[in-house]
Structure formats: structure tokens, C-alpha cells
Amino acid sequence: MKTSIIRDKQKILDFLLKEPELQLYLIGDLDDFFWPHTTWYCLSDKNEPEVVGLLYSGMDTPTFLLFQSKDDGSGKELIRSIKSVLPEKFNVHLSPGLLEIFGSQNIIKDYGQNLRMILKRNPEAVSDENIRRLSRNDLDKIENLFNVSYPDNWFDSRMLETGKYFGYFTEKMLTGIAGVHVYSDKYRIAALGNITTHPGYRGRKIAYKLTSYLCTDLKKTVTLIGLNVKSDNMAAIKCYENIGFEITGRYDECLVRN
Fold it and tell me: Which entry of 123, 202, 252, 258 is 20 to 30 Å from 169 by CA?
């Protein structure tokens, strides 16, 4: 087995498309919007990737992602071989069993286990005059809502340029939002994110309406829609299941020191 940095988009894509639901986020990071912030590592056998890991540096704290459906040792071997070149501190999104490579003593913060959910059926067609598409002109309202209802949320305002953010307005006040962490019409995939409702307006199905509306809009340009959700967030999981999402996997999320 040989470890190397790989920059051949087509070769990476061919590998990721073997399990597109598992590799949803990595496929999205092939898009030109994200590509400049990526470093791709692979463990190869006879020049063919056996496992691929991604270091994304487009945030203040880099994130390393590695997902695999079977624990055959290749993921651990790849991580061991590149540990010396990874940052001093970074977030990890790893399939179960891989986190142990870093050692429990090096976990700075454990964010718990997340579920991967994939949209398996068409969402309800929602028509509501309180829903409208958001843009950078709404940035102050968006940030105010996140400060109140989702303070630990990671939001990249550049994603507003995709046009795939929708807000719910109650008497001109932004009371709900649904958007994307990853979107690529080229690769026809999207990963939802930044979904929240103002605490004072919960229980009114605002998140359900917004997410359904967003998915209907996304399906005009993509074929695979997924999201991540905390495994203990039962209200959100139930909401997504009602829309048409199903749980397809899980992964561990932590902040680690190298």
C-alpha cells in the first residue's frame, strides 16, 4: 500500500461515487467553490485508491474527513501515515472506530456522534407566502437569528451565493432558516445545513416547511440530498424523517490535538 496526496479530480470522483451517500460531503468538496481549500490523501494499491481522506482548510479550524463503510484497517493505516503532516489542532469527522487512532487523551472536545440522513422520497410541496429566498442583503438578520437560536452553528456566508438559502418571516422578522453546507449542480449533490427556528416560534412546523421547500427547490438541479444531525436531537430527526429522509450511517465528530 502507498500513501500519497492526490489531485486528480476524476480519479477521486470515481472512487467516491462507489458509495455516493456515504461520501456526499467529499463529493461536494470537489466543486470549484471548495476545491482550493482541500488537500486529498489516499492509500492506494496498484495505483487505485483503497481509501480517501480530506483535509478541508476553508475554516478557522481545519477539518479532516474520512468515511468508510467497512473497517478493513485501511482508514487507520492512512491516518497513521499522514498524522505527522496534519495540523496541530483540527476537527475530525470519522467513521466509527477511526477516532481511536488519535488517542482519547488528545480529544480536546467531543461533539458526539452524528447521523447521516439521505432524502429517499419527494418532500411535500409547500406553498407559504412567509417563505422567501435569502441573499447577502439579509446577512444581519441571519446572523442575529443564529446568535439567538443556534450560537454554536458553523455558517459560511459565502454559501448565500448559491441561492439555496430560504427564510421564514413572521411580521417581517426572520424566524426560521434552512440552507446548505455543500451544493454542487455540477456533481448534482447537496448537503443541508444551518437549519434552525427562533426559540419563540418553535412548534409551528417552520423547520419542516422550510426544509421541504428547500429540498423541492434543490431537486431541480441535484439528485442526491443529505444532511448530518446529532444522534440525540430527536425532534430534528423526527422532522427530517417526516420530510422523507432516512438514516444511512453515523460518524464521530471531535476537536483533536495532533
Answer: 123
Q: How far apart are CA 92 and CA 49, in angstroms?
A: 21
156 and 98 within one domain: no
pLDDT at residue 152 greater than cutoff 90: no
Query: Are 186 and 68 within one domain?
Result: no
What is the pTM for the complete model shown? Answer: 0.93
Residue 254 lies in a domain: no
CATH of the domain at 71: 3.40.630.30
CA distances from 54 to 16, 64, 245 (A): 12, 6, 26
In the listed set 114, 137, 162, which residue is the last one of a domain according to the structure?
A: 114
Whether 92 contacts 101, CB under 8 Å? no
In this structure, the number of other CB atoms found within 10 A of the CB of residue 115 comes to: 20
Longest dimension (CA), the chain: 62
What mean pLDDT is reported for the chain? 95
Answer whether residue 258 is part of any domain: no
CA dihedral 37, 84, 96, 21 (to 10 degrees): 30
DSSP string, 56-92: E-SSSS-EEEE--SS--SHHHHHHHHHGGGS-SEEEE
Q: With a cut of 90, say whether residue 12 has pLDDT above it.
A: yes
Which residues constitute the domain of residue 62? 2-114
**Does some domain include residue 256?**
no
**Whole-angstrom Cα distance, residue 128 to residue 168?**
9
Q: How many CA atoms lie within 13 A of 6 on its CB side?
A: 25
Distance between CA atoms of 13 and 187, rounded to whole angstroms? 9
